[in-house]
Amino acid sequence: MTKCEKCGQDTSKGYDCEHTKFEEYCKECYTELHYYITELKNNE
Ligand SMILES: [Zn+2]
Ligand SMILES: [Zn+2]
After folding, report:
1. How far is it, in rounded angstroms, from Cα 3 to Cα 9?
2. pTM for the whole structure
């Protein structure tokens, strides 16, 4: 089990990338983070 660095929930699989500062996020937080990143890019 991995603990999500954002919401603190245990998740079976952690996701990380440069946007999470390479900390492991659960799928929900990871998806939400990229959703906002995509929205910001679209608004530029
Ligand atoms: Zn989370
Ligand atoms: Zn990313």
Report:
1. 6
2. 0.84
